[in-house]
Write a structure and sequence with these properties.
This protein has 155 residues and is mostly helical. It has nine helices and no strands. Helix 2 crosses helix 5. The longest helix has 22 residues.
């Protein structure tokens, strides 16, 4: 797959870079476990933005409460607020916003439009979160596989 579209540094990636610079400026005097979390945040903010506190803790080699303390130490109310700020820096906050409220008697057209808009927002956010090299690798493996099994769970 040729990856000429979407691999250029975008405006949102520039905002994310500026945001990372601001985090670096705030991370001068941290405890060792907090410093590990912030080092991971600076190295891979997209992982942190898409992960749970437990996943971040496991990758950083600290406890989940250390992840929350690190977020607070660099100026956020907690880990959830940190994740929202990563999304804002990437320009994907609409993905995290609650869906538009519909009245119980909403017409079918409004339900359909709201559903389509939510799906489009989710796909836009996914497009910004994908590692294109890993995506290309996955596509190559699927194309060369003799058999592909797909399954899922959830709504």
């Amino acid at each position: 797959m040729k990856s000429s579209n979407g691999n250029e540094i975008s405006e949102s990636e520039g905002r994310l870079g500026q945001w990372i610079g601001a985090i670096q400026a705030r991370s001068g005097d941290l405890a060792a476990s907090e410093a590990k979390v912030v080092a991971l945040l600076l190295a891979d903010p997209l992982f942190v933005g898409a992960s749970t506190a437990a996943q971040v803790a496991a990758r950083a080699g600290v406890s989940p409460p250390s992840v929350v303390r690190a977020a607070r130490a660099i100026g956020f109310g907690g880990f959830s607020e940190l994740k929202l700020e990563i999304a804002r820096a990437r320009g994907t906050t609409r993905f995290f916003a609650p869906p538009e409220a519909l009245a119980a008697d909403a017409p079918s057209a409004a339900v359909l439009q709201t559903s389509i808009r939510a799906g489009a927002d989710a796909l836009t956010a996914l497009g910004g979160a994908l590692d294109l090299a890993a995506f290309d690798t996955a596509v190559g493996k699927i194309l060369s596989a003799r058999q592909v099994l797909a399954f899922g769970a959830g709504p």
